[in-house]
Structures are given as C-alpha cells and as structure tokens.
Amino acid sequence: xxxxxxxxxxxxxxxxxxxxxxxxxxxxxxxxxxxxxxxxxxxxxxxxxxxxxxxxxxxxxxxxxxxxxxxxxxxxxxxxxxxxxxxxxxxxxxxxxxxxxxxxxxxxxxxxxxxxxxxxxxxxxxxxxxxxxxxxxxxxxxxxxxxxxxxxxxxxxxxxxxxxxxxxxxxxxxxxxxxxxxxxxxxxxxxxxxxxxxxxxxxxxxxxxxxxxxxxxxxxxxxxxxxxxxxxxxxxxxxxxxxxxxxxxxxxxxxxxxxxxxxxxxxxxxxxxxxxxxxxxxxxxxxxxxxxxxxxxxxxx
Length: 301
Known about the structure:
- By secondary structure, this protein is an alpha+beta fold.
- The protein contains 13 helices and 6 strands.
- The protein has a domain at about 15-145: Multidrug-efflux Transporter Regulator, Chain: A, Domain 2 (Orthogonal Bundle), CATH 1.10.1660.
- The chain has helices at about 20-25, 30-40, 55-70, 75-90, 135-160, 165-180, 180-195, 200-210, 215-230, 235-245, 250-255, 265-275, 280-300, and strands at about 45, 55, 100-105, 105-110, 115, 125.
C-alpha cells in the first residue's frame, strides 16, 4: 500500500522565476561565474521569456554549495572539475544532496565515517569523525539546516500557487529528495508520469528510489518503460543493468551495460563481471575504456 504523505500535493504549483541576476545575488557568485557553471552543465536553467535563464531551486542549491566551497581557499576551477566528475559518475543522489566538503586544498565527499576524493577516487577512513570539535559539527548542521529551510520554505510558497506541469512535478520530486523526503518525492515523480507518460527522467528517478528500497521488480518495470519512451537512453540501460547485476544475472547485466558505451561506471561494472567470468582480455579492455572516459571528462578543465 502506498504511503499517502504525498497527498499534500493535490494542488497545482508553478515556481517563481529566478533570473541570472537574481541567482547570482542569492548565491554570492558573479554572473560570469554562474554562466561558467552553466557552460559546464552543472546546472541547467530553462530558457524563458526573452530567452532569459530561469533557475530552479535545485539549481540554486547547487550554486550555493559551489559558492560555499569557493570560500575555503579552493580554486573555482578545481571545484567545478570535481563536481563535474561527481555528476558524470551518475551518483544516486542529486548533487545538492551530496555532502561535498574541503580538506585543505582538496575537494572530498563525506560518506558515513569515510572521505573520498572524486578526482583521484582515493578513499580515506575518517576515524576522527566522532572526535571532531563541537564548533565544526554545529557549523555543518547549521549549513545543512539553512539549505533545507531555504528549499522547504520555497516549496510551501509554490504549493500555494497553481499551474503545475509534468516537468514541474519532476522538479518538486528532485527538491524533495534534497530534503530526504523520498516518500513524497516518489509521489511527485508518479504525478509527473501521470501528467506526461513520456517523462523519462521521472521514470528514472522513481525507479532509482524504489531500487534503493530493494523494490527491484518495480524499479525494473520503470527502467523498461523509460527505454520504451527513449530507447537510446544510456542511463536507463545502465540502471537496468544494475538490477540484473544485483541478481547475478550477468548475461543480461552485460547486455544492458553494453548499451551505455559512454558511461564510465558501465565499463567499470563490465570489467568486474568479465573478471568474475574469467575473461581477462575483456575485463582489461573495459577497465581501460572506463579510465579513458573519466580522463576525457576531467581533462577538459
């Protein structure tokens, strides 16, 4: 039985427009920096009236995170390079939900009691996590609370308005994921699909959330539907491959991973599977290809 927490979204919503100038002001970045971030594909504002940029609140959260990192003696170039690598890795969370921090002059991602460097892939066990100073912990909690309040308050304002389309419901789902409200995010993605059965991104995100909750058959059906709508979607093929990979159905996993030739994680997984199957030549070939794709992406900065 589905949870009804998402029924609060029974009215249509239309987000307010945030222009380039307003986005720069809200995030303490320059308009030139924001344009550079857009050019890297880290945020994807829509083009509205007069072909002007219109930023979603998910975009603003990413911009705020980049702005905060730039105040910690790390170059903007390094920040954008590392965040681009994270985006290319097809993280299971939106970028705004990833705990990105600085460690000296390096960018790191915190996951439980470990830190890892997106640029090198190196993982560092954070044995001192429990002994961090109270001030540091309070600062981190305050930063997260500030971002959550920023988004939650905006969602409330948007709920009071009208005119929500499928893509807007999809964006609401993304925003809710940033607030760790996966149940209502699922309901938002379902509503996006009800309004537009060709909304591939809604299928993918809903499938991912269900997969994370071990609802593999439901996730599988959603990925298959995404492929019906967009047969060339490498992400849908990759995600479907991970389902079969989890079930140790390697033949089908290989089939779908091979349909994502431009995704480094697909080649990494193929390399691992072929190694398990004793095919060292194929394993090495896909491992090499995964590194080429990673280098190609990071080398453009």
